[in-house]
Protein 1
Amino acid sequence: MLLLSTSDVLDLWERGAHLHPLDRGLLALGAAMPDADPAAAADWPLGRRNSALLELHIAAFGPQLQGWSACGHCGEKMEFEIDARALLAQHRPAGTDSIEFRKRMFRLPTSRDLAEVGRDPIPETATQALVRRCLTTGETVDQWDEQQISELGDAMAAADPLAEIRLSLRCPKCDDESEETVDLLTFVWSEIDARARRTFWEVHTIASAYGWSERDIVSLSPARRAHYMEMVQA
């Protein structure tokens, strides 16, 4: 996993600003893993993709993932923090791309699968479409009920535990308990967006004071840019 330079972050921000979140994640992985084919990464099981995103976050932004969610009962802000290193140590991506369930073989879901079924505005039919896409061998699943589909989902989650990261949260105000899904694509892109916007502000501030070009300012180390910012704002 390569470190992302300031120039890399600005380039990613510009190229990914108008992309779908799934494509942004693959774009970021392509920058940090130049030997990986982004088209091939779209077909990785979700756990493998999420493992790579965690490693990218550790390398580029540090191991702590900090976020918040609003309580569904009273609206209170609930903050949380995740140690990406601990998450990687506890849960490894699937060692296989498929599982057997009810005498059928299924691929583990991928980013490409989610992108395809995500076009369906009805969650129930999208879930059924995902099951049909992942079926590789065996009889049709068109007649499966919600219970059978739920059991398949549990089997896939057990085989690929990093495919979906869920947190149990308790509201500090009303004590209501809830579960939230951690979207690593959003986490990584939020970090890229925040760093890019901070760099734009630094370039604007320093260039206004010294007349230097963006290239010259971006080539400075973060510590040196911070020092110039302090002097300009003093």
Protein 2
Amino acid sequence: PGVAARHVLPGVLPKTLTLSIMKFPSVMVSVAAYSFLGFSAQPPTADWGVMLADGRFYLSDHPLLVLWPTLTFFVLVLALTRLGESFRNR
């Protein structure tokens, strides 16, 4: 292996991994927001924003159509944020 792989990569890799994990939740929220507004994935594609956009029309009759995707999305984003914070604190 070269000098870069032996000396530079061990110093750069943990910070790059931490940055990637910390940015991933914000990217997920952005993609979901765009698809909710109709600028990204379109039905019948399975996407967080598409599920919420379709479920909002049935919110008064069937609130669970919006509750479960929202709750699942929230828990996933929170878990990824906590994971990124734990990597950052190392």
